[in-house]
Design a protein that fits this description.
There is one protein chain. This protein has 281 residues and is an all-alpha fold. 80% of the residues lie in helices and 3% in strands. It has a single domain, classed as Arp2/3 complex 21 kDa subunit ARPC3, CATH 1.10.1760. The protein starts with a helix and ends with a helix.
């Protein structure tokens, strides 16, 4: 157990380091032209939040974007460290809630589908009644009893053995007759098998439809999560630039550009999340 926890922690650290490096590279690999700029750093942060959770996304977002700003624009690197860390943390927490809701939806609908299938195919467990013990009529002969002739029900031993043999023969013949299947029985069994097979196919198709709805639900709710998280980023940079420039008017100039960055990053991240969600389901 301890080895598994250590292995999981090692993997999580490795994945967090990988996403930090990707955030750094995504921040550097941006597009800038005139008043418009865009980079993939926020998309990587949102994808990390969906795949790894809030803490790895907070580390990868804050540290990776901080190193990116340190390389290209050191003026905002400290603000970036806090803003992108909050972005990753909030997105990760919201994605946890989304996954729990989708898992609950999937479990409840699949349970309902299986219950419907079992209700339409009840398993009949008929138990034969336990035979009550039959008193043995062959009582020992006791000539010392004064009235043994009137009360005793002893039969002739030879006739009793013959009766047992005859009963066994009749039972074996009856069992053999019962085991013979008529063509009508075979046709009925084939119809039952075909019906059960078609019903199982219908249940499987129903489960696939439920999984598709879960994927669509994940994608539909991932987009507002990404938009909200990147909106926090835009507001954070607005406040940071107001402190840097000393006036809110100057910060307002960059706010629409940050909103464009947020919109494109949300669209890219949602597309990638849809692919991961489809593959995982």
């Amino acid at each position: 157990m301890r080895s598994n926890k250590l292995r999981l922690s090692t993997k999580l650290i490795a994945y967090t380091a990988l996403m930090t490096a990707l955030t750094y590279v995504g921040t550097l690999l941006g597009f800038s032209g005139g008043q418009f700029y865009f980079n993939l750093g926020d998309s990587v942060i949102l994808i990390c939040a969906y795949l790894l959770g809030p803490i790895p996304a907070m580390i990868a977002g804050g540290l990776g974007a901080f190193l990116g700003d340190l390389t290209v624009y050191p003026t905002t690197m400290l603000y970036t460290l806090v803003i992108k860390a909050i972005e990753g943390l909030v997105a990760g927490l919201m994605f946890i809630l989304l996954k729990k809701a989708c898992a609950k939806y999937l479990a409840s609908h699949m349970t309902t589908a299986m219950k419907d299938f079992m209700a339409s195919h009840p398993v009949l467990t008929e138990q034969e009644p336990t035979a009550s013990p039959v008193p043995d009529e062959r009582v020992a002969w006791d000539e010392t009893a004064p009235d043994y002739k009137e009360t005793s029900t002893v039969k002739d031993p030879a006739s009793a053995v013959a009766a047992d043999i005859a009963a066994e023969g009749n039972g074996a013949q009856q069992g053999a007759d019962e085991r013979v299947e008529t063509p009508d029985d075979q046709i009925a069994q084939s119809d039952v098998y075909t019906s059960e097979k078609s019903d199982k196919t219908a249940v499987s198709a129903n489960i696939k439809q439920i999984k598709k709805r879960v994927v669509l639900l994940t994608v539909a709710l991932s987009l507002p999560i990404c938009v909200f998280s990147t909106a926090l980023m835009a507001v954070g940079y607005f406040i940071a630039q107001a402190f840097i420039y000393g006036t809110y008017a100057a910060a307002l100039i960059a706010l629409p550009l940050d909103c464009v960055q947020a919109a494109i990053s949300s669209a890219v991240a949602t597309t990638v999340i849809a692919v991961f969600s489809y593959k995982s389901k």
